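Lecture 7 notes: from sequence to structure.

We start with a single chain of 170 residues. Read the sequence below before looking at the structure.
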Amino acid sequence: MEVCINILILRDIKGDIITRLLKILLTFSVLISCEKDDICIEGSENTNRVTIGFIDNESKNPTGINLSFIKGVNNDSIISEGFSGAELKLPLMVNSNQTEYILEQNEIRDTLIIFHQTKHQYLNRSCGFKSNFLIKSDTKIIKESGWIREISIVQDSIFNEEKTNIFIHY
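Now the structure, written as tokens:
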């Protein structure tokens, strides 16, 4: 009888130890399966925008400009009303090879058509992809009456927003 009681006690102890070990192993496996980068940190790399500068056609110097509004074609929203500055940063469409913007100055509208190639770059699981662009040489303007004289592409690759990509001569 004493041997049976000891066997039953050992069976309970073994079952308790196995249950505890399984709980510890399960907790450990959950902890090591989490990655540190599950949150995309604010300020991390994003899809870059095209940087447009403005050059006064008479002085040939970069200058600021006042625009009544900037509107994306195939996009119902006005991107900017009353822009004033020397540099403009506009997003390019990642799902198309061309992006169009209507730029208005003094009630005169011109359309800037930027032809580009999109290259997607994988960042990590939490941030996903960012898109880089290569501006094609057939980028052009469609003039209504023409406040834009010409455009020049000075940096065709868009891998950061530090450098001016296109100058608009007005």
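The longest helix spans residues 2-33. Keep this in mind for problem set 3.
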